[in-house]
What we know:
Blueprint: H1 9-27, E1 30-33, H2 35-42, E2 56-60, H3 75-80, H4 89-96, E3 100-105, H5 139-146, E4 152-157, H6 163-169, E5 172-175, E6 195-200, H7 203-213, H8 231-234, E7 243-246, H9 259-274, E8 278-281, H10 292-314, H11 325-335, H12 339-357, E9 366-370, H13 402-407, E10 411-418, E11 424-430, H14 436-449, H15 461-464
Parallel strand pairs: 2-3, 2-4, 7-8, 7-9
Antiparallel strand pairs: 1-3, 4-6, 5-6, 5-10, 9-11, 10-11
Amino acid sequence: xxxxxxxxxxxxxxxxxxxxxxxxxxxxxxxxxxxxxxxxxxxxxxxxxxxxxxxxxxxxxxxxxxxxxxxxxxxxxxxxxxxxxxxxxxxxxxxxxxxxxxxxxxxxxxxxxxxxxxxxxxxxxxxxxxxxxxxxxxxxxxxxxxxxxxxxxxxxxxxxxxxxxxxxxxxxxxxxxxxxxxxxxxxxxxxxxxxxxxxxxxxxxxxxxxxxxxxxxxxxxxxxxxxxxxxxxxxxxxxxxxxxxxxxxxxxxxxxxxxxxxxxxxxxxxxxxxxxxxxxxxxxxxxxxxxxxxxxxxxxxxxxxxxxxxxxxxxxxxxxxxxxxxxxxxxxxxxxxxxxxxxxxxxxxxxxxxxxxxxxxxxxxxxxxxxxxxxxxxxxxxxxxxxxxxxxxxxxxxxxxxxxxxxxxxxxxxxxxxxxxxxxxxxxxxxxxxxxxxxxxxxxxxxxxxxxxxxxxxxxxxxxxx
Length: 466
């Protein structure tokens, strides 16, 4: 409509601002409003000629944008008034594509959890049920998209942090191959677990956005294999008859997957079979062995480094009262990691990852799983450790996502199902390294077979229009 002259970028941004003002008091997805900057950006000459011609977006508060605050949901950074003096590579590419950021979205402290309930901003509420979580850590971004505040928002995925909230909020979330989208130039984890991406309501929008921001940047430590086709082209490429393994239970975690999630996965398998694919109960045998101990060694070391880095910004060491108890406990654990322990953990993760990734060389194309093992959970059920349980038990809730961060392989969550309560249940498709194009082809095929475009939560801009 902007290209045709029926609307202007200013119209789009103004409408999104009004939607945020209407919906955010009940959902709490947007924590830092930068509306004046957005309206100025929407007036920029030539914006209407770009791919995303003034389309409004939001940034998860983990990435740098020149002149904007970046708090990671930590009050110590808010008190310090931390404002960035540069753009991340991703933000620069989003702007070049014509997207206009309206502000920052809610997230757990340091993006370190599967429920968005930071002390600084308070809980983000699910537009499907305001008593339920939006997941994490890109929870605010997912809620903003699901509710129709904006059609696209930035997220990061370090263990499922795009896919988990996409599943819980009923939208599309792609974790690209490690190195597909640049992570620099600063404040990124050393092992490449976390990758930037977007959350949208359609496979088309995800494909176009990832195309727009992909490509190697100077100094990137990871390099993704080139795609045979752009993701936008892959939307209309028939994937052929694929061999798909279906997995929803292994010996590597003790809890049973919820029947709603099992049913959604099996239903997706039947849908894929109806589209001509071969679906069999199969999965990489490496998944019978947990990689959590090695992953935790690396993750806690990264959290320790992050708190040391923040201490330099605020001019004093970060103290226990400055952060969530889980973050502090992780930092303490990370401070005890010796060099040889860290090196052994990396070696263990690489060995496990090789065994996992070798499954695709055995003739498999796609791994089908639930995105998470439980339906959307209530607020307050994942965040508070106790003396008897010092670490929240999240592995049994989200056992399907972290392996793709460990190995760098791509995976996508699709909103194919709802349960009897009307809550969204996502399914996950995972592919071999560099095969986002295959994921997009299959995802587009599923979206055409079972459209979800008209499915809106009760608390959304569209629902309020009747």
